[in-house]
Amino acid sequence: MIFSKSQNFSQPFTTGSMLSKISAIGLAACLLVTGCTKADQNATPVEGASEEPSSKQALSENDAIASHEADSRIDSNVQKKPEGKPVSYDVQNWKAVPNQDLSLEDVDTLKRQFGKVTVTDNKSLDYASNIAVKYRFMSGDQPYLDIIDSQDYVELGWYYANPNDSDKEKKVSINHAQKVYQVMTGLMGDEGSELVQKILSGKIIKNKEINGTKVELAKCEFYSCMIIMNKKG
């Protein structure tokens, strides 16, 4: 009987142990199936919530970049102005008046080559910033054609048309160049006409003596052509 009692006392202990083992096995199975604890399950939605705003933020930034690039392309297209047709100077077919003997000292004769004086400025300045007289042969806002005369220098200046100017402005600029071509041929012969051809093509002439006359500067750039000659030779 003692043995039996011993069995009876041990039976409840064995049953409780079995229940504990079953509970442990069930919990382990739950962990294997779910792969997480309750605390982990509570943390999962927070992590997912943090990903959603991050994705939206990245998408928003991409949209902003794409929008900025599109605006830049639009601004570039608006600001980009189509290039006009370059001005063509057919110098090879220009004809100068033959046997024309002109002099830097005879400014009145030079003025007649350019036409009628529309404005006279007695307080202008020459190449060396000395007092000079400027004779203008165009009116208002028309492309200018000038002679600047001082004690030491004679300067011929005219408007140098650019590709985006109107056809009318280009034509006037070409006519000015032809008149200067005539005058320079009369002053220096063929070398004078060659000088005009060179500067119309973009070359710059400095401190060069041509047929006894010193050319201080001759060039065409930035909407302006000029030929500055020293009277003293």
TrEMBL record:
Residues 43-87 are annotated as: Disordered. Residues 66-84 have a biased composition (Basic and acidic residues). The keyword Signal applies. Residues 1-39 form the signal peptide. Keywords: Signal. This is Lipoprotein. It comes from Psychrobacter pasteurii.
